[in-house]
Amino acid sequence: MIRSRTFVFGFMICPFWTPSMNVPDDLVELGRIGEPYGLKGWINVLPSSEEPDVLLKSKQWWVSRLPSSEGAVVRRAAQPKFEDLVFEPFRVLQSKPHSSRIVAHLEGIEQPELAAQFKGRRVYVSRARFPAPTEGEYYWVDLVGCLVTNLEGRVLGTVAQVVDHGAHPILSVKSDAEQEMLIPFVAAYVVNVDTQAKQIQADWQEDY
Fold first, then answer.
1. What is the pLDDT of residue 50?
2. How far is 20 from 72, CA to CA, in rounded Å?
3. How far apart (Å, rounded) are the C-alpha atoms in residues 139 and 10?
4. What are the structural domains of the chain?
5. How far is CA 63 from CA 11, 121, 147, 185, in A?
6. How does DSSP classify residue 157?
7. Strands 12-13 and 27-37
8. Given a cut of 70, is residue 17 above it in pLDDT?
9. CA–CA separation, 189 vs 191, rounded Å?
């Protein structure tokens, strides 16, 4: 989430959808599972940002895995493609922050040996289940794809990604000619954001 044009939450949207599995078509990757936590089957999750509110508030997580004829997790050296993944829903019984991570108890995972099999798998949440942002707050996934125009109405391009610059986020805007503009996502330059219309107005020029 981005609050008052300050970067808080970043993630990658997943385009993969298998209708027969009733997998939502708006899954967003929010974390990666690490080592088991404790002796009762809890898992450690490294969030994709420093603001894990969505993971903590969601009661359903989708966990990815690679398909296997034996149902086991298949590990590869390279990051698998989305179309190679299978998504399994889990009900979140409990979750809480723990240092820079989240620890959670998922339904059906009661032993640390079973929790260990989930190491390296990714956690997703449906965008439709995100808490509604308050005024001045924006989710990164909602900014990607927005058309950016300047105060004169000239089209600058489309937001390709949002980059965490530390002090503030930066919009990576690509023009039709594939030229990149980096616009700080701060009030001094970003005048208006309409995620519903997928439009952003910025006080910016092409030659900046």
1. 57
2. 21
3. 7
4. 2-129 (2.40.30.60), 144-202 (2.30.30.240)
5. 15, 7, 32, 31
6. E
7. antiparallel
8. no
9. 6
Reading the block at residue 134, the tokens are 């308050």
Q: What DSSP character marks residue 129?
A: G
Count of beta carbons in the 10 Å neighbourhood of residue 120: 13
Confidence of residue 16 (pLDDT cuts 50, 70, 90): very low
In this structure, what token pair is assigned to residue 106? 């998922």
Instruction: Show the tokens assigned to 109.
Output: 């995972």
51 CB burial (10 A radius; 0-12, 13-18, 19+): middle
Extended beta strands in the chain, E state: 2-3, 6-7, 12-13, 27-37, 42-47, 60-65, 86-98, 101-106, 122-126, 137-138, 147-150, 155-164, 169-174, 180-184, 190-194, 199-202
State yes or no: pLDDT of 2 exceeds 70. Answer: no
Q: Which residue has the higher pLDDT, 51 or 60?
A: 60
**From the centroid of its chain, how far is CA 54?**
9
The residues, ordered by sequence, that sit 6+ positions from 13 with a Cβ below 8 Å of its Cβ are: 26, 27, 28, 29, 127, 141, 144
Question: Are 200 and 171 contacting, i.e. CB atoms less than 8 angstroms apart?
Answer: yes
Distance from C-alpha of 102 to C-alpha of 10, rounded to nearest angstrom: 16
Q: What is the pLDDT of residues 113-141, one digit of tens each?
A: 999 999 999 999 999 999 888 888 898 88
DSSP letter at 82 equals G
Task: Share the mean pLDDT of the chain.
Answer: 84
